[in-house]
Amino acid sequence: MKYSTGLLTAALALTSVAAHAEELSVVGSWSGLPLHKQYEKPFWDEKMPAASDGSITAILTTHDQMGISGGDVFRMLGQGVFDVGMTVADYAVADSAALEGLDVPLIATDADSAKAMVEAARPLIDDIYADVFNAKVLGVAPYPPQVVFCNAEIATLDDLKGKKIRASGRMTGKLLEALGAEAVSVSFGEVPGALQKGVVDCAVTGAGSGYSAGWWEVSTHLMPIPLGGWDPVVTAINLDKWNALDADTQATIEAAVKAELEAPAWATAQNALATDVACLTGEGDCPGEKRGMTLVEASSADVDTARDILVSSVLPDWAERAGGDWGQRWNETVGEATGVQIPLK
Q1: What is the pLDDT of residues 252-280, one digit of tens each?
Q2: Integer Cα distance of 272 and 211 in angstroms
Q3: Chain-centre distance for alpha carbon 174
């Protein structure tokens, strides 16, 4: 009798687990870049199931593997095409100009200040994703700072004037134009060909992304100034799906994303930049193959000039385009955290 009771108890337990199991369809960011390979894939394949004792699993792909653009990810997420989407927030600014305020160039010069900036912006991000994309934000992780690759000789920031430059985001494009360059829209995957053919002279992306994607083969000079901010990658879940989950499942997912995806990505962001620059230029410690790009260090005067243009021109332009009270909300959150205030009309 005890043996039968034990079997019944085990069967009921398995039935309960099966009844509460969740298999999420997840679309990640670029499949070939470090953020996905080192953090997103291990998280959904291993760490999320482990954190939930196997009750939450995922079917994972990426937007490039699906053949859709980064700009489609959050639109399709809101429509319920999949459960979770992960991609660069700047890819979605065509749907919300306010979202540009998450990734502002030159304000955060190290990972700690970039993280503080993102945390201050979270109330804004949460509202945008709920209202525009029918989505709940689970976390925000960084790409390393978006730096400048050039297939042309440069020595200072002033040398970017007149050059055609692929921007990593809309606000970066506005800053480049204010610096006298021509901002060109080219998708990440098309950049190597554009650099090689002279469609663009320079391009902005993360140092590690450029290293992984072979941009060193078609560019000669590297300027590691964060002209493209930190290109935050947002992880969000369809709001209808989120509301259908029980409170315990919601808490498990949020806690796991924060501890096992966000935190590790931020913890390595600063050292990743130094390593990536070393690998691209051959100067310093590199765990992989060293390349031979010319390192161009921007002067403090260069940085001050670009930052002045950002605050006096680019940010006010953004506040006007975003409309409503977004400029004031930014000042009260991100601005307070970073010591930067947008002069509002």
Answers
A1: 999 999 999 999 999 988 788 889 999 99
A2: 12
A3: 19
